[in-house]
Amino acid sequence: MRRQLPIEFIYQLFSLIIAIIIVHGVYVSAVRPNAQRVLEQQAIEINSNPNYVPERSTWVVIRDFEQEACFILMLWSFALMGFKANQARQERAVLRLDLIPVAQGTSILPEDTREYSRPVQALSEVQQTFLLPRTLLTALHRFRSTRNIQDVSNAIRAICESESERLDSELSMIRYIAWAIPSIGFLGTVRGIGQALGQAHQAAQGDIAGVTQSLGVAFNSTFVALLISILIMFLLHQLQLAQERLVLDAETYCDNRLVRHLQV
Predict the structure, then answer these.
(1) What does the alpha-carbon distance between residue 120 and residue 93 come to, in Å, rounded to a whole number?
(2) At what angle do helices 149-170 and 209-257 cross, to 10 degrees?
(3) Which of 200, 210, 224 lies closest to 64, judged by CA?
(4) What is the Cβ-side half-sphere exposure of residue 255, based on CA atoms within 13 angstroms?
(5) By CB atoms within 10 Å of each CB, which of 37, 105, 123, 248 scores lowest?
(6) Contacting residues for 131 by C-beta, under 8 A, at least 6 apart
(7) CA angle 11, 231, 81 (to 5 degrees)
(8) How would you class 247 by CB atoms within 10 Å of its CB: exposed for 0-12, middle for 13-18, buried for 19 or more?
């Protein structure tokens, strides 16, 4: 696990940098020019036709800095969740292996644990760090040393519970992002309302264009942030569900393939 932490940190750092480059490039090259063109066209139509009602444009809705920051955090969270989902997929692939080749009706004695641990030890170095191989090796070693089946069951349950807590704690960054995105949207709301209040004297003179544009910034930022937050929370719950099922399936694997065959 000590070797995986720097790799994950580097992945998080570079994924954030790549997300910033991609989103900012799209905004500079497409979003803000198109939004400016739409606003200019709408201004021309309003001046020429007093009855003209401008349509809501997606370019205008997402053009501000708060929306750009929300999209950057969205891509970053997608990258982090993709990394965790790939880890869960690799660990689930190990569950399909027959790591304890025990025939029906065969018992495992404490003297046999060294032989049954060889298939697990034959896995690659990366696979041996997964939940199921670690749990099986710990259970076999515990059975050889204590000759107590209840101790083996307690060891399996303790490892699975600690793994569940570890997986849950590693999702804290994604939860923080899911919390930060609506907060950034509310910052845009505060900024837009502040700009609108600063232009109140223009509205008192009959020019409400600046006030309406500032209020548009306020509502658009919150609207985009809440939509992105809903999407991220849905994907986060799906990832957490997959991880919980992985831990439960690993514990069931140990009970069905190992504990039920133990014999003192």
Answers:
(1) 14
(2) 170
(3) 224
(4) 10
(5) 105
(6) 91, 159, 160, 163, 246, 247, 250
(7) 20
(8) buried
| Mean pLDDT of the region 17-46 | 90
pLDDT in tens, 137-181: 999 999 999 989 999 999 999 999 999 999 999 999 999 999 999
**For the segment 190-207, what is each residue's pLDDT rounded down to a tens digit?**
887 877 666 655 555 555
Distance of CA 133 to the CA centre of its chain: 25
In the numeric block, the tokens 């505060």 are attached to 190
Task: For residues 136 and 91, give the distance between their C-alpha atoms in angstroms, rounded to a whole number.
Answer: 14
Which range has the top average pLDDT, 43-57, 81-95, 188-202?
Answer: 81-95
Structure tokens at 249: 């399936």
d(CA 219, CA 66): 11
State how far the alpha carbon of 101 is from the alpha carbons of 96, 125, 147, 197, 262, in Å: 12, 21, 20, 74, 13
Residue with tokens 């606003």: 39
pLDDT for residue 1:
43
Q: Over 70: is that where the pLDDT of 33 sits?
A: yes
Task: State whether the Cα torsion 256-258-260-261 is positive or negative.
Answer: positive
According to DSSP, residue 128 is labeled: G
Closest CA to 76 of 36, 119, 21, 153: 21
Residue 51 scores a pLDDT above 90? no
101/108 Cα distance (integer angstroms)? 11
Distances (CA, A) of 193 to 184, 190, 200, 227: 14, 5, 11, 21
pTM: 0.86
